[in-house]
Amino acid sequence: MGPTGAGKSTFIQTMIGRETNGVGHSLESYTNQISAMRVTFSDGVSVVLVDTPGFDDTHLSDLDILKIVAKWLEDIRRRSLTLSGILYLHRISDNRMAGTPLKNLKMFKKLCGEDFFEKVILTTTMWPEVGGGVEEDIYIRREGELSRTYWAEMTNKGSFTCRFRNTQASAWEILNRVVAHESRRRLIRIQEELVDQKKSLPTTEAGQQLHGIFEALIEKQNDLLNRTKEELGRTGDPEVLMTLLSEMGELRKERDKAVKDMRQLNSSPLGKWRSVSSSIRRVRRRKT
């Protein structure tokens, strides 16, 4: 798991020594569905690697991604299958943890739950070749900062870190840690919520986290719309005017899409979750 462009598909293809369905060489997401690949160790141990789309997919909304991942996890739980572990991939070349990477990490933690953290390997990618000089030193310091800050909650509860060097040997070494570390298998939180506790997706912690993301996005877009409207009233330049009108149109589209997704997330045949009508009314009052 991990954000778009973190190297999830590349990791699997590097491990097996060939391409599967292709690799996204840009930041446009390649994997927009769940895909699986079986690999076998020299001693005969068989492992299934599962590639999942990130919550910043270029073709699917965050709500679609949550539904896809949750449905797959629910299905394997109902078949009495459990996960040996999860590799969470993160680009060490990213110089800050904000926006999309931070959103992905927060959603991931809600999906997993604290009890599963000991089975998570925080895998950094995009490392230079060994002996990368100054760049390598910067990345090592960055890795330490991640462990002390954004990853601290997870590492304190058993998660550990690995570096993927974009080689087959490196990939096998990381996977071997998953197999060697395997003890009593655990369910991840969303599996317990959906199957054992019979919750609907919106009532899960991941569902509520996504709802909060939608709310924050809607409020942010409304603030930007209000500011853009103020600038619109001050400018007399026709070119600037057209640019601002175009920006307002895009902001309205993004805001309305978030409202639609939030409503869809909270629609439940059994009406088990709190209504979002109050949230919608609050943000609509500030509509332009």
UniProtKB/TrEMBL annotation:
Tell me any Pfam family this protein matches: MMR_HSR1
User: Which residue ranges does the record annotate as region Disordered?
Assistant: 262-288
Q: Which domain of life is it from?
A: Eukaryota
Q: Supply the SUPFAM superfamilies for this chain.
A: P-loop containing nucleoside triphosphate hydrolases
Coiled coil segments of this chain: none
Family matches, as InterPro entries: GTP-bd, P-loop_NTPase
Q: Which residues form the G domain?
A: 1-60
Record-linked CDD domains: Ras_like_GTPase
Which Gene3D superfamilies is this protein grouped with? P-loop containing nucleotide triphosphate hydrolases (3.40.50.300)
Q: Which GO terms describe its molecular function?
A: GTP binding
What name does this protein carry?
Answer: G domain-containing protein
Instruction: Specify the species.
Output: Macrolepiota fuliginosa MF-IS2
